[in-house]
Amino acid sequence: MAQKDLKNRIGSVKNIQKITRAMEMVAAARLRRAEQRIEHLRPYASAIRRMTRQAAEAAENIPSLPILQQHAEEKRVGVMLVTGDRGLAGAFNSQILRAGLRAAREHEGSGRTVAYYASGRRGVSSLTFRGLDVAGSYVGFTDRPAYANAREIAEDLMSGYTDGDLDRVEIFYNGYVSPLTQEVRHETLLPLQQADVLEEGEDEEDASGHHALVEYEPEPEEILHRLIPDYVEISVFRALLESTASEHGARMTAMRNASDNAGELIEGLTLQMNRARQAEITQEIMEVVAGAEALG
After folding, report:
1. C-beta of residue 196 within 8 angstroms of C-beta of residue 172
2. Which residues share a beta bridge with 169?
3. Are 165 and 201 within one domain?
4. Cα angle at 79 between 230 and 75, to 5 degrees?
5. CB-CB contact of 226 with 12 (8 Å)
6. CATH of residue 160
7. Helices 92-109 and 121-129 meet at what angle, rounded to 10?
8. Cβ neighbours of residue 231 under 8 Å, at least 6 residues apart?
């Protein structure tokens, strides 16, 4: 490769490296804000789930609210995939799609039909590309989801369940562990009897080994009636926030790796250009020496 071509290629790689470094810095700044939102939400989400579990245990009869009624058969399952609006985040989106589609195939293998729901343009476009019908698509907010976005999704999922269109609702999202680590989480939202209302790390009993005594006013049935919509909404909102933080962490890591790879490529191309320059200088010297000998 000629020196000019090598020089142009080095310039192109340097420009790309500037972009990836800028994207890394932007992702890092957004990640810090997303981490703060998760830290503020997690105690509240845990409390809602704990209260829902305790009220369900204390209720003598599950209230006649449609959303609390477990369907006799599970013929149609709603699968909610939480992805991002953008790419350039490593395996962030693809691992959710793989996990969701794998679970969908298992449901279909058991004779159930699957209704797909997806947040994030990546998830929606991937399902559409595969020729799958998307019952609910939600895009344009994955960088900074609001509670209203979670409420919209939760209302559609709850409506599908109460109207009898869905017999079970599952959600797949990337749980945030650290900027370098995101784990795929699979939770059941509905029916409540099978829902993951117990947070990881929570114990059924208090430190003394006994259930805490709680007096309910009004009755547990009425409290449960009010808690369930909040429980579904906060569970979806937490999944959105966890996914957002995971996306920023994955993108920050991906852009850092891209910048490092660009640096290595620049070093290799620079070495190759220096060798080409040295070879050209050597050739010129040999031509000068040969010309001098011819004249002499």
Report:
1. no
2. 78, 190
3. yes
4. 100
5. no
6. 3.40.1380.10
7. 50
8. 48, 49, 52, 192, 195, 197
CATH label of the domain that carries residue 287: 1.10.287.80
* Distance, CA of 61 to CA of 150 (rounded, Å): 29
Cβ-contact 136, 145 below 8 angstroms: no
Distance CA 216, CA 24 (A): 50
Report strand pairing: 168-178 vs 181-190. antiparallel
Is the same domain home to 138 and 271?
no
> Residue 84: what residue type?
G
- What's the whole-model pTM score? 0.83
Q: Which residues of 39-59 are buried (b: 16+ CB within 10 A; e: fewer)?
A: eebeeebbebbebbbbbbebb
Residues 133, 240 share a domain:
yes
Claim to verify: residue 108 and residue 201 sit in the same structural domain: yes
Give the three-class secondary structure for 290: helix
For 189, the enclosing helix (H) or strand (E) is: strand 181-190
CB 140 within 8 A of CB 207: no
Rounded mean pLDDT for each run of 10 residues along the chain, 296 residues in total: 83 93 93 92 85 74 72 92 93 95 96 96 95 95 94 95 94 93 93 64 42 62 80 93 95 93 91 85 83 75
Closest CA to 219 of 59, 19, 28, 68: 59
| Residue 13: domain span | 3-18+255-295
Domains contained in the chain, number: 2
Cα gap 82→120, rounded to integer Å: 7
- Tokens representing 266 are 């620049």
Torsion of CA 192, 195, 197, 203, to 10 degrees: 120
The structure tokens listed for 102 are: 């794998």
